[in-house]
Fold:
Amino acid sequence: MHLRRLWLTDYRGYENLDVTLPDGLTAVLGDNGEGKTNLVEALGWLSTLTSFRGAPNEALIRLGAESAVVRAEIDVDGRDVLLEAELPRQGRLRVQVNRQKLQRTRELLGVLRVSVFSPDDLDLIKGGPGERRRFLDETIVARHRKYDQVRTDVDKILKQRNALLKGSGGRMSDDVRYTLDVWDAKLSAAGEELVRVRLETLDLLVPELTTAYDQLARRPAEVTATYVAPWRDVGLAEALAASRKDDLRRGVTTVGPHRDDLALAIGGLPSRTHASQGEQRSLALSLRLGAHRLLAAESGVAPLLVLDDVFSELDVERSDALLAHLPPGQALLTSAIGLPPRADPDLVLRIHEHHLRADTAAAELDLRDAETMSDPDQVLPQPVDNPVDGERTAP
Amino acid sequence: MSGVYAGPVQDLIDELGRLPGVGPKSAQRIAFHLLKVEPADAARLAAAIIEVKERVAFCERCFNIAERGAECSICTDSRRETSMVCVVEEPRDIVAVERTQEFRGRYHVLQGAISPIDGIGPEQLKVRELLVRIEAEGIDEVILATNPNIEGEATATYLARLLSPLGISVTKIASGLPVGGDLEYADELTLGRALEGRRAVGE
Structure:
């Protein structure tokens, strides 16, 4: 799969964007606040129909515009596919594939496949279990969109069960008991299925995660990712029955797949509390790269790999290691601090106030380039600080 | 929504906007249409709404729509089998099942599905009434035809558990592929369900 061309209309800061991407590596350079992450977000959004930044859909529409449009031309096994998604401020999202309107927007999931890494992914290590569950669930939906239903079923059943618990006022009437029986049966069936798929995915992910981490860190370390679900010893049905009194008193479901965690460790030590900043960043990136490798291996087609502001996260050795081991396929990376010397992108795009301009002078960045540009409006003030030290130089 | 139109016009727009499937723009369009039509036409619409609220209520037996204080046309049809009942969520679901002309029994309308989020439990549905009917009418077969979503499925499971000790036949309608369609166009969920519910073929 290869993304040939992307159009944005009234998406966030972009009034109009039309960009053609090469097969290999594209670097998008520009200061912070110029629209790099918005571009990355648009790519992810067209793939999953949700913002990886967790922004509500309305936030994606440019201020003052009635609707945002994201269009992409992709090449799937030599076949041209045109994806179009129109997000109106009022009314429903419309998605089209090759000008054919999709009956269910869910059918768009996975047509364009994108793996996104962003600096926020450090939360996968430092944040709560919810971040890690979300990562796992995103990965399973990317493996097959049918799993989206399993995940939403669990969510819906949980909401109903919690509403029942809350509405009962803590009293176990016959009515509450019989209705709880029903929701427990539904939750244990859907929950066991979700966790079965999570575990299956994790089994496939761990070797890829290890490979990705070793390549980045260059000092092989034993990376483990263990699914933590205390209820699995007895099964969800029994665990729900056992926690029923407690659940009723507290008005929430205290056990189940929505409380599970993914325990990450390096060399046997929990990475949240024991790993260094560098290790944590490498591990977060390795999770994304691992999932990317898994999706590429399983489907035989690499998703588009998007790395947002990745060099600000890594020291020079790790940046070089990342570039040396970029997985095959199409990739796009953004940087506010220029590119490491090792980088050899096929296309460099400079971004300024949500306008893109192709840079023919490859990756070398300096002010002289900017001064010789004809259109002063499109001149990009580029940071010239040595990018090699890996520090964020932008304000 | 605070409107820009004064008094009665805004009242009308607000009322129309409360109807299902009518957004603010449609409400405004309908309201302006009504302003333009002949008074007699508008009065007919108003009278029809008043009449339906005065005369139509729910069937005393099955909770389908019926003339006030009476049973519905299906319950009073003597050709209908009385030992078989099809349980649905809403009166409009009866219309769907009737279109098949496959079912010759009577119906029972629950008037909703179990949904704690909306404050609807078995108590709020016509479940007790169904139990009374099974006893009183000698019903020996119940077909559950709730919607194939989380709430509908939960309601079906609840009823199946409630009814199974009674020693009557309780079945649920199958979910699967639309007839006359192509397999390649089926969404994976429906097809997955159809695979789950596969049946042996042949004699």
In short: The longest strand of chain A covers residues 2-11. Residues 174-217 of chain A form the longest helix (44 residues). The domain at 1-113+306-395 of chain A is CATH 3.40.50.300 (Rossmann fold). Chain A touches chain B at residues 90-91, 104, 107, 145-146, 149, 153, 156-157, 159-161, 163-164, 167, 175-176, 178-179, 181-183, 185-186 (CB under 8 Å).
